[in-house]
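Quick one, tokens below:
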């Protein structure tokens, strides 16, 4: 193996190309997580208070933890200068779904 084959993830991140690659990876992970989070919020909003609803709320909390970890990894919150921050806007998924149903029925 060449010496370059043993370059650490942090060393790769320290190059401009490595930062961009890391931002791309974080972005690729955050998008589907946002979709899963939205789906869980929608299902949770339709469930009566129950054990299942609490399980979904726990899953939502874990997704928030993963999202925060990805933000740290990308440098979005006080990380390295020049790191690419990815920000997702929160959405009221149940309200958006209701609007979509209204448009379809019109």
């Amino acid at each position: 193996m060449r010496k370059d084959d043993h370059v650490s993830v942090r060393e790769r991140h320290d190059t401009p190309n490595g930062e961009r690659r890391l931002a791309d990876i974080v972005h690729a992970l955050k998008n589907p997580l946002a979709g899963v989070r939205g789906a869980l919020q929608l299902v949770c909003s339709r469930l009566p208070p129950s054990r299942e609803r609490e399980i979904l709320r726990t899953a939502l909390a874990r997704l928030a933890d993963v999202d925060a970890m990805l933000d740290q990894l990308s440098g979005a919150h006080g990380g390295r200068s020049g790191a690419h921050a990815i920000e997702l806007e929160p959405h009221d998924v149940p309200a958006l779904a209701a609007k979509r149903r209204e448009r379809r029925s019109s």
